[in-house]
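>> received
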Amino acid sequence: MYQRTRLAMAATVAELADDELQALVPATPEWRVRDVLAHVVGLAADLNAQRFPAADDAGGSAWAAQQVVARRDLAVAAIVAEWVREAPVFEAGLRLFGYEEGSHFVADLHAHHQDVRGALGLSRDDDPLTVAVALDHYLGFLDQLLLAAQWGTLEVVAGNEARLVGGAGVPRAGVSGSAFDVLRSFSARRSAAQIRALEWHGDADGALELLQLGFTGGYSLPAADLIE
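>> returned
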């Protein structure tokens, strides 16, 4: 799944003009399209070399920023070539560490690829299997968030699949939407208003309040709607 999305993102950027590569990405408003590419390539290179965020770098924001800065003067073709070199080791590592770790990086890469495509008005990257794997990761995060807060159970219906997160009791609330829209909502790629516009029952406002508290720093919900 990571390889599929890597190749898809490389194909996306290969077709872009210079002005498109310089376009701002609303989902990551401090970055342009080429910066998003630099980050995902830099992340693979750093982890291959066992370069990790500093202990005081909460959320890895400074680490990610350095990945972008280090590649700012490189041509996009050179950044993609670096990805080709780093990918075999990185992808082998994901297979070695297993599904839980692998789904994290599939989810992260898919989020960034869709951020770029959305910023440029391109069609969605809604490959069903990739969306399902990415959603597994983000629903796992949501499950931990709900359990830690002792909030109760949330029923999530994504497309044709229903899941309970935050416990196995009677749901305090429920939300449903397409698998793609649920994924983008729970990966902090939808505004609070857009998430509230999904089909809800029960304590929707309480669930949304917890989401806003849980998504902080670089993962805060966007203030403005993201239209894709």
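>> The first helix runs from residue 2 to 14.
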